[in-house]
Each structure stands twice: as structure tokens, then as C-alpha cells.
Amino acid sequence: MKIVPDTSVVVDGRISELVESGEYAGATVIVPEAVVGEVEAQANSGREIGWDALSELQRLAELADDGEIELRYVGERATEPDIERAAAGAIDALIRDIAQAEGATFVTSDIVQAEVAEAKQIDVEYLEPRERERGALAVEEFFDDETMSVHLREGVVPMAKRGSVGDVHYEPVGDAELTVAELKEFASEIMDVAKRDDDAFIELRERGMTIAQVRDMRIAIAEPPFADGYEITAVRPVVKTTMDDYSFAGELEERLLERDRGVLIAGAPGAGKSTFGQAVAEFLAGHDQVVKTMEKPRDLQVDERITQYTELGGSMENTADSLLMVRPDYTIYDEVRKTDDFEVFADMRLAGVGMIGVVHATRPIDALQRLVGRVELGMIPQIVDTVVYIEAGDIETVYDVKTEVKVPEGLMEEDLARPVIQVADFETGKPAYEIYTFNRQVVTVPLDEESGGTQESGVDKLAKNEIEREIQAATRGPVEVEIQGGNRAIVYVSESDISHVIGKGGGRISDIENRLGVSIDVRTLDEYPGNASSGTTESRGGSSSGAGGSAREGDIATPEITSRHIIVPVDNAEPGQTVEVQADGEYLFTATVGRGGEIKVSRGSAIAEELERAIDREHMITVSVQ
Hints:
- The protein is α/β, with parallel strands linked by helices and 626 residues long.
- It folds into five domains: 2-126, 5'-nuclease (Rossmann fold); 138-235, Beta-Lactamase (2-Layer Sandwich); 243-443, Rossmann fold; 458-531, GMP Synthetase, Chain A, domain 3, CATH 3.30.300.20; 555-625.
- The strands form six sheets. Strands 15-14-16-17-13-18-19-20-21-22 form a ten-stranded mixed sheet, with helices on both faces.
- Helix 2 runs parallel beside helix 4, helix 3 crosses helix 4 (48-65) and helix 11 packs parallel to helix 12 (339-350).
- The radius of gyration is 33 Å and the shape is elongated.
């Protein structure tokens, strides 16, 4: 009897056991050199299964010395590319070819191998795979009941984030610095369990980065060249909550069950957004709702009633297309970050699916503003009607979002009526923000600021900025604006610019007044109350070159993304001036300010792609005058 074992049965030690039991007594065992090359590579990388396989080969050699079997090694050793492509079946094909050429029985515990061999009319014996006993992973020794994540890196003592939601501390959990060999051993164990255990799987496998889900842990393994050293990060949920653990629970439950909703769960990193998302998912699943999730990677800890989906073919758009065939009542989208994510979220919501998205935001309104420019303004309330802001593990704010055609708060003229998105406090019903188009731009105006004293209201600030923008398009010198009320303002310009601002027969200033719905009085800068002396008239817009001139820090800008452009408003420079745009202090590009007081970058260009990536990553965009 001639047999050819593959790597799976060599690792399990099945061949020597069957020889000793008498079933394979006197057999000729033909071991492909490809098997030897694969297990040697596994052993060299520190994987336990590689060492197990080498021990089995040594036992077979001893049995051959005792005359129990004949042992032969045949074929060519697997090359490094073959080993790298082992998961795609490169080595399996070499082993099958040897079994066929030798006319031997092919022995495997890999069901795919067995089916392929049978299809190729090779005599095959399939052995049920043996369950490998596994206890806790080595990385689990660094966890305790309050540990949220463990961070292991070569040359650094083990670190962990511990505490409760909203009160987390990053602290050492070991004394000795970790070595590369130790990290490789940890990684080998994780990979082995991820491949073999029923409650584990490999989420992502790319050169330099592997993400595995093992029981309730999400584990990321980074190595060169992707990272500058070996690193393992293991994360697991500390607490599992229900809706009853949160403020406004009863009202939110009624709202979610009343009809399919569009909800954004917002908060800072570590605030407890995903934990709340899990509670919402399980509440809905327990109330006759079909619930699915979209995650990359999949790390929400939900019960068996909820199916968790990830990218299909590398795209969440493909996942959404598949989900529309499944027709869930609600889908939890964790996390919505990039423009593509918002577009998929919007498409599914408009298709009638209840959507709950998890979004990073430092203020409740910021979550809603991230939709501006990515979808049509008038569609926002149909896509998102509820914003839930989480802080320190509890609900701090809930906003109700709806549309009404009205004159925006603070403006007076009836002909200024337009669709206005009203963002109101869910508990009190008091309006907190209005979002609408003003002078061809989308603006978000806070309504809960005090208007008394010297503090400007949101509408006053908006009107001042827009008036400055319009007037500067008609001047070459500095501009100052003083708001006198909701529909009246005084503009101060240099004497030489007054005629340009007013225009022939007052036509230009009338056009500006009609567009903005504000009555404007034009005066010279000498009359400006804040102008203590003539030496200060270059305080805005002009270049500072005297004793008082100093380099200005970049002003923060909020870009608007349209279908064709990314528009960066510039408030600290005049039209025609050169400015530098940065993201989190890193240079992006230099541009010239247009007549509208803004920079337009055409989408699809290299600069636009870099700027859009910075916006998606929530980098601070700043503009500074050169």
C-alpha cells in the first residue's frame, strides 16, 4: 500500500498513529518535499503547527528505522512564492500531482483537497480534522475585567487601556520589554486559532497587516514593511449594555419602533458609540425587527439573531446592494467616515431601510454637518432625522431633524423664505440650529446663543461674513462691517473704494442688498468706531509690514464638498491674494483667492483627492496668507 499524506495530516500526527494501530502497517509512505518545505517555513516563523509537523516527520523516520514502514521523500521543495501562495492551493496542487504520479492513496483532512482529488480521479482517503485543544491565548493574560485594549510592541513594555467608558487610562501591564520573537510567537498562536476555531476568523490579510476576530477580541497584527516594527493590538468590549442603561431610553425606543428611521450615533473616540449601537441593535432585534450590520472590521458584539456583514469584493457599495435583496428593517453601519460611506448610507436610507450610523464627532451638530456637500441639502432630513450624541458612556444630546419652508431666524424679508433644516433638542423641542442656503452657500446657524450685550448672534456672524465677502469682491483695500440689527449693517471701506462699492447709480450695492436681504450703509474707514488712528486702517485685508505686523496663524476653514468642486472659504485674505492650505499643520497646496473670497478645487484632481482624504480623516483645515 502506498500513501501520500498532505500537510494537514502531517500536522495532526495522524499517519504515525495509523501505522502504530496497524491500519498502515507495512505501507510505503511517500512524503512530498513540498510538505517538508511548508512545515519548515511554518516552524521558522514560530508557528506551533510547524513544530508539530516536524515532530510527526521524526516519528515516521523512527518507524521506518524499525521496519514498520518504508519512507520516501520525493518531488521538488516548495519555493518561497509557492509557500506565500499556499492558501490559494499552490502547494496542494504539487502534493496531488505526486499522489497521481505514484499511483498512491492521497490522505488528507482538508475537505477541499479531498473533493479536488476525487474530481481528478485520484484515490483519496479523507480523515475528519482533529480538534486542537486551545486554552486562553497568550495575549489574554494581559487583560483583566477593566481592560479595553492591549498594546504590544517590540522594544516596549506591554501597555493597556483600562478603566470604564469615559474614564480610561493608558498604563503598563508588564515590566520587561517585548522582543520580536515573543511577538511572532503571539502572532502565530493568534493566526492558528483564527484559522481553526469555529468562533474565530481572519477579517483582513494584507502584506504587513492582519486583522483577526477571535471570540470577543479584535486583534490587529502589524509588521514591517507596513509598520516600522512588530506590533499587536487586541481590543475587546468591557461592558455590554441595554437600552435601559441610557437616558431618554423610553422615548428613543418609541421613536425607533414608530417607523424606520435614519439615525447618526455621534461622539468622540472612546465615548461609547459602538457600545450604544450594540444596545440599539439588540433592542430592535428583540422587537420583531430584522437587523443586520455593516462593519469593517466586524467587531460589534451582538447576539446570534443579527448577521454581521463586511465589505463584499472590497466595497461597501456591493454589501449594500446585497443587503437590499435581504431587506432588513434596520442596518447598523459602523463606522461612517469617508464620502463613499455617507453615500452608501444615504442610498440605503432612501431605499427605505432604517439606518443607524456610527460617526466620529466632537459636537452633536458636527455629525449632521458631515453630510453637507456629500448629499443634496434638501435630502438630509429624509436621510437622517435623529442625531444621538454620546459622551462618557451615556446619551448627552438628542436632536430631531426636519425641514420647513420659512424665513430663517433673524432675517426679516418675506422674500427670503426658503427650505430650512431645523435641528431641535429632542427633549425640549427648542430649535438649536438652522441649516440653509444663504448667498449660494450652505450655512449652519446656531440659535441658542445669547444676543444681548456685545456677543454676536449666529445670524449676525453669518451676515457679517457674507457682507464682507460681497464687499471685498468690489474693493482693493480693507473692509470693516458693523451689524446694526437683523436686516441693517454699516460697511466701512477706504475713500477710494466707495464709488466701486456703490456702483453706477447705486446698482452694485442694491444688488448686494437684494441678495442678502440686508440694508447696507457705506461709509469711510475714518468713521469706523474701532479705528483709533489712521495707522490702523490696514488691519484687515492689507499686508502687515510695520512694527505691529507679525505672521498670522492659519485660520480654520470648513470646506464644502459639491458634486464638482471642493470649496474652501477664506476669511483672512482678499481676492487675488496667495494663501497656503494645510491639514493638521501639514502643507497641502498654495492657491489664489477668488473674487468670491474662496478657493475652488475641481474634484478629480490630485489636490482635490488629497484635500478630500484630509476632510474624511477629520483633519483641521487651515488657511494662512503668504
